[in-house]
Amino acid sequence: MTDGAVVHRASRPLGGSVAVLVAATVWGTTGTATHFAPGVPAFVFGAVTFGLGGLLLAATTGRPAVRALGRAGTRGWALLGAASLVVYAVAFYAALADAGVALGTTVAIGSSPVFAGLVEWVADRRRASGRWVVATLVSVAGMVLVTLARSEAAGSGALPVGLGSALLAGLTYATYSWAVARGMHAATRTVPVPVPAPEPARGPGVGDARGVLGAVFGLAALPLVVLALVAGRDALVLGANWPVFLYLALVPTVLGHSLYAVGLRSVSASVATLLSLFEPVVAAVLAVLVVGEHLGGAGWMGVALVIGGLALLALPGGRPAARERSVRVSSR
């Protein structure tokens, strides 16, 4: 292997981590954006964001999304990812309603890296590294401090139901991440071509990998659009809400999840979900700078813990390289 190939291979996990961090930064703008559409129920934001954004993402993907549904190697992953995404969108906002914004967000987002590690351990027989465990504990602790410092709103429903919904949201988000990652690797797997070939063979590529994401969001968008039309009619008829809806669909959904998918091509689902804990940090900082919220000493300490945990994960010799080795083994 040449020195250039070694450098390129080593840079892939770093580039994937950066893509996920940028995606988390984009997602962190969601809360500030919803501030400009007051009175819209939280679940309507979720249905419109993933519904409209999913349709746009599927439309811009085009034929690769259709191929992802047609290929036996990727169809199952697309269906699993779509089902997980729909359940996540519903369960997350149910958690906010029943358990409260702070507790629901903390349990849902904080549990997703843990669930992702468990899914990889059970399904891929890959145990978490000590560094990943420490980074997860530090980052989740920081995320808890950030979230609790921002909101004291209590839920209006049964607390056990809210906590169950939050855990379900964490599990399904982890499953969505894992399914998309596995589907993208299946889409780009090299297929042997008979020799001699009548014409130059065109194997799977980046478009096929992105097609998996388009298929996942296209399938998930259908029930979410119906939910938005049936339960969110009052919010949809107000023209003042549509700049926010379009922003949420185009930026956090289409752009954010496209970047997240790019990251999943070179880092594991457990690493990606851990890096996505940067989202509450961005949301908290924007809330202070734009909305005028007060974070407090505990909140800023939480920000420092999240950044410190993610920095620990980013040190050389961390989990992403181990993931690349496991992908090569599982694709044999």
TrEMBL record:
<dbReference type="InterPro" id="IPR000620">
    <property type="entry name" value="EamA_dom"/>
</dbReference>
<feature type="transmembrane region" description="Helical">
    <location>
        <begin position="77"/>
        <end position="96"/>
    </location>
</feature>
<comment type="similarity">
    <text>Belongs to the EamA transporter family.</text>
</comment>
<keyword id="KW-0472">Membrane</keyword>
<feature type="domain" description="EamA">
    <location>
        <begin position="215"/>
        <end position="314"/>
    </location>
</feature>
<feature type="transmembrane region" description="Helical">
    <location>
        <begin position="12"/>
        <end position="30"/>
    </location>
</feature>
<feature type="transmembrane region" description="Helical">
    <location>
        <begin position="271"/>
        <end position="291"/>
    </location>
</feature>
<feature type="transmembrane region" description="Helical">
    <location>
        <begin position="36"/>
        <end position="57"/>
    </location>
</feature>
<keyword id="KW-0812">Transmembrane</keyword>
<protein>
    <submittedName>
        <fullName>EamA family transporter</fullName>
    </submittedName>
</protein>
<dbReference type="InterPro" id="IPR051258">
    <property type="entry name" value="Diverse_Substrate_Transporter"/>
</dbReference>
<feature type="transmembrane region" description="Helical">
    <location>
        <begin position="212"/>
        <end position="232"/>
    </location>
</feature>
<keyword id="KW-1003">Cell membrane</keyword>
<feature type="transmembrane region" description="Helical">
    <location>
        <begin position="244"/>
        <end position="264"/>
    </location>
</feature>
<feature type="transmembrane region" description="Helical">
    <location>
        <begin position="297"/>
        <end position="315"/>
    </location>
</feature>
<feature type="transmembrane region" description="Helical">
    <location>
        <begin position="102"/>
        <end position="123"/>
    </location>
</feature>
<feature type="transmembrane region" description="Helical">
    <location>
        <begin position="161"/>
        <end position="181"/>
    </location>
</feature>
<feature type="transmembrane region" description="Helical">
    <location>
        <begin position="130"/>
        <end position="149"/>
    </location>
</feature>
<dbReference type="Pfam" id="PF00892">
    <property type="entry name" value="EamA"/>
</dbReference>
<keyword id="KW-1133">Transmembrane helix</keyword>
<dbReference type="InterPro" id="IPR037185">
    <property type="entry name" value="EmrE-like"/>
</dbReference>
<feature type="domain" description="EamA">
    <location>
        <begin position="16"/>
        <end position="147"/>
    </location>
</feature>
